[in-house]
Amino acid sequence: MTRFLLDIKKYKKYSGRKSALLLILTNQGLWALFVYRLGNACYRSKLPVFFKRVALLLFVFWQKGIEIVTGISLPYSAQIGEGFYIGHFGGVIVNPSAIIGRNCNISQGVTIGVSGRDEKRGVPVIGDNVYMGANAVIVGKIKIGNNCVIGANSLVNMNIEDNKTVLGVPAQVISDNTSKNYI
């Protein structure tokens, strides 16, 4: 639950220091993160196989309910670092095999998914301090470096080096600006 407390800390920073209780009660992103963090802790635990499977089955239903209510899909098997911030309500889809680093921000409509063929088929590995703009699509067996900005409505299907800003369909590096002012 330490990771969830770090998530709340980041939400407090963006909310003008509103109380944690108010944020938990009113913020759909935190609802989805809470269910994800519990499910992921169970998934990574050393519980006996039978109990783990039963618990994960329950988490699948709970996660599906949260997905229906919030429009945010964070499967328990995805790897998401602490300080994750979901900026706006809905349309966030994360592949169960995706890896997202620490202190990342994700906007509404973002998809992090599978794409490619043969040895290029896979899901993204996203570094730390990455800002993902509204409706961005990040797909394939690619690596997004640390401190990157992915512009709104971009399609990222190639590796991105650290400290780059990308934009477009397909995304292209447009500057060496980092995510410092976005995170």
Automatic annotation (TrEMBL):
<keyword id="KW-0808">Transferase</keyword>
<keyword id="KW-0012">Acyltransferase</keyword>
<dbReference type="GO" id="GO:0005737">
    <property type="term" value="C:cytoplasm"/>
</dbReference>
<dbReference type="InterPro" id="IPR005881">
    <property type="entry name" value="Ser_O-AcTrfase"/>
</dbReference>
<dbReference type="Pfam" id="PF00132">
    <property type="entry name" value="Hexapep"/>
</dbReference>
<dbReference type="InterPro" id="IPR011004">
    <property type="entry name" value="Trimer_LpxA-like_sf"/>
</dbReference>
<dbReference type="InterPro" id="IPR001451">
    <property type="entry name" value="Hexapep"/>
</dbReference>
<dbReference type="InterPro" id="IPR045304">
    <property type="entry name" value="LbH_SAT"/>
</dbReference>
<dbReference type="GO" id="GO:0009001">
    <property type="term" value="F:serine O-acetyltransferase activity"/>
</dbReference>
<keyword id="KW-1133">Transmembrane helix</keyword>
<dbReference type="GO" id="GO:0006535">
    <property type="term" value="P:cysteine biosynthetic process from serine"/>
</dbReference>
<feature type="transmembrane region" description="Helical">
    <location>
        <begin position="20"/>
        <end position="39"/>
    </location>
</feature>
<protein>
    <recommendedName>
        <fullName>Serine acetyltransferase</fullName>
        <ecNumber>2.3.1.30</ecNumber>
    </recommendedName>
</protein>
<comment type="similarity">
    <text>Belongs to the transferase hexapeptide repeat family.</text>
</comment>
<keyword id="KW-0812">Transmembrane</keyword>
<keyword id="KW-0472">Membrane</keyword>
